[in-house]
Amino acid sequence: MEQSALLTYLILIPFAGSIILFAFKEKHAQLIRWFGLFVSGLAFILSLVIYFSFDAAKPGFQFTHKVLWIDSLNVSYHVGADGISVLLILLTTFITPLTLLSSWKSIQKKVKMFTIMMLFLEVGMLGVFMSLDIFLFYIFWEVMLIPMYFIIGIWGGEQRIYASVKFFIYTMFGSLLMLVAIIWLAVYASEVTGSFTTDLLELYKIGPTIARDTQNWMFLAFLLSFAIKVPLFPLHTWLPDAHVQAPTAGSVILAGVLLKMGTYGMLRFNLPLFPQSAMQYAPFISVLAVIGIIYGALVAMVQTDMKKLVAYSSVSHLGFVVLGIFALTEESIQGAVIQMVNHGLSTGALFLLVGIVYERTHRREISYYGGIAKLVPVYATAMMIASLSSIGLPGLNGFIGEFLILLGSFKSQSLDSWWFVIFGATGVIFAAVYLLWMYERVFFGKVTNPKLESELTDLNKRELLVLIPIFVLIVWIGIYPSTFLNLTEVSTQSILQHVSSFTINLLN
Questions:
Q1: Separation between Cα atoms, residue 131 and residue 359, nearest integer Å
Q2: Residue 232 DSSP class
Q3: HEC string of 51-113?
Q4: Which of 134, 193, 361, 370 could be bridged to 448 by S-S, CB 3.0 to 4.6 A?
Q5: CA–CA separation, 436 vs 426, rounded Å?
Q6: What is the pLDDT of residues 347-377, one digit of tens each?
Q7: pTM of the model
Q8: Beta carbons of 335 and 403 less than 8 angstroms apart
Q9: Among 170, 430, 132, which residue's Cα sits nearest to residue 303?
Q10: 199-247 pLDDT, tens digit each
Q11: Helices 29-53 & 6-20, crossing angle to 10 degrees?
Q12: How far apart (Å, rounded) are the C-alpha atoms in residues 43 and 32?
């Protein structure tokens, strides 16, 4: 197998799987589930091959594959991966089969279409993380919208149509602004070089030379699109609705991977393409990130619905990631990248666990439960591990990301204020408050609802099979984070060198 085509093969596996599934008959639901699991598992195995074949010490993109696509516009199918991409590709292929396995019993209607949408969604997510042509990136960015819209709209809760339309409109609005900036950037490139191009590596050389005012507008257009996807305060209002109404599998993939597309876009486009604007707007964006950290945590505290509580915790945790990106230090960006993975694991596990009890009782209100640790001790243990991971307990994955982000922010020249660290750190305290308070009310004390004794059963083998791999990674990253930090170190340094080489005047 040619290494240069590995990423293309990785995209083709779920794409071919989703096409083949159309030949299956709906009545063969069990066979469809097994086929979907096989295809997503195959993609995960290939991503492991890519991970172990990746040379972390080598700068630049690897596994690059470029084929001219639209000759008249000089648009190419151009894919490649650096350390950051490889890590997020691995996260995508890891989470997808687990979500399919988690929906084994909960999704009973239109199983074929659900599996097709999940595999098609994987295609879009993988394409975003490996595109090295901004037109191709935009295509994959938009492709991802369609399956997520249907996953929420068909298999979601009572207000699923409202939530799916809101999700679609928010993201589409941001995407259109990004499209304008992409066209503007490509036209500018044609004026400078005489050749219209959407190749990202070529644009990296041209973007920083753009006049400051024009660069600012392009930067803001890209930023708004990515900030909506993150979501960054105050553009977050679509997220709680989407999470609450989505089926469990949809919530897990949304929290685990989709939100990272926004922060990945900031790293891949905003910083290297527009370094001067990134430095100029870093304090303002960091203020919004810190507001998001505190606001998300405070709103999570007052939630009565477990799923909504976890949804608002995402607003808070992703605020940390954005703060890390725009602190523009090696520690903070390393922390931001590892925190993307940490959030996918810990919040994904929390959504899975909330979904497990919802499948049994069809209730998510905190007040409906009480003292259930006596009834489901294994489930209570799993929820405690996921909660402590999300809080950032030392020894678990969340601590590493938050520590590096706060350390990097404290050393940051672009922020030049320790107040960002002080206020950001309060999010860690608030996370302990809302998660441990929720845990205490749901699991401790007497069993408050006699119905629960007949409704609740402990985790079965399939549910343990979904959760154990996540918990292994949670502990692994917490104890030995170098496994993944070494992977992203050179790529992080490359981004920072690119930014600093064009912002020396601003720092002096």
A1: 38
A2: P
A3: HHHCCCCCCCCEEEEEEEEEHHHCEEEEEEECHHHHHHHHHHHHHHHHHHHHCCCCCCCCHHH
A4: 370
A5: 15
A6: 989 999 988 888 888 888 888 888 888 888 8
A7: 0.88
A8: yes
A9: 430
A10: 888 888 887 778 888 888 888 989 988 888 888 888 778 888 888 888 8
A11: 180
A12: 17
Find, among 214, 18, 228, 26, the residue nearest to 108 by Cα: 26
For the chain, the distance separating the N- and C-terminal CA atoms, rounded to the nearest angstrom, is 50
Find the length of the chain: 508
CA atoms within 13 A on the CB side of 348: 35
Rounded CA-CA distance 157/20 in Å is 29
- 83-102 and 29-53 are packed helices; what angle lies between their axes, rounded to 10 degrees? 160
- Distance, in Å, from the CA atom of 90 to the CA atom of 131, rounded to the nearest integer, reads 15
Nearest to 252 by CA among 161, 337, 353, 157: 353
pLDDT attached to residue 10: 92
Is 10 within 8 Å of 85 (Cβ atoms)? no
Neighbours of 419 (CB within 10 A): 10
What is the rounded CA–CA span in Å between residue 334 and residue 119?
30
The mean pLDDT of 423-449, rounded to a whole number, is 84
Three-state DSSP class for 231? coil
Tell the residue number behind the tokens 């706060």, with chain if given.
Answer: 406
Residue 440 vs residues 149, 328, 346, 434: alpha-carbon distances, Å: 35, 38, 19, 10
3-state SS class at 131: strand
What 3-state DSSP class applies to 253? helix
Structure tokens at 16: 């071919």
Residue 405 · residue 324 · CB < 8 Å: yes
273: helix, coil or strand? helix
- Asked if the bond preceding 481 is cis, omega within 30° of 0, the reply is no
Residues 6+ apart with CB under 8 A from 141: 124, 128, 175, 178, 261
Give me 125's structure tokens.
């997510």
Position 112 scores a pLDDT of 86
Q: What is the pLDDT of residues 113-156, one digit of tens each?
A: 889 999 999 999 999 999 998 889 999 998 888 888 888 888 87
Instruction: Using alpha carbons, select from 228, 241, 326, 319 the residue that is nearest to residue 275.
Output: 326
Distance CA 137, CA 144 (A): 11
Half-sphere exposure of 63 (CA within 13 A, CB side): 29
To which residue do tokens 């991503």 refer? 47
Three-state secondary structure string covering 392-441? CCCCCHHHHHHHHHHHHHHCCCCCCCCHHHHHHHHHHHHHHHHHHHHHHH
**At 58, which amino acid appears?**
K
Provide CB contacts within 8 A for 402, sequence distance 6+.
320, 335, 339, 392, 428
C-alpha 182/C-alpha 196 separation (Å) is: 11
Gap between the Cα atoms of 145 and 31, Å rounded: 27
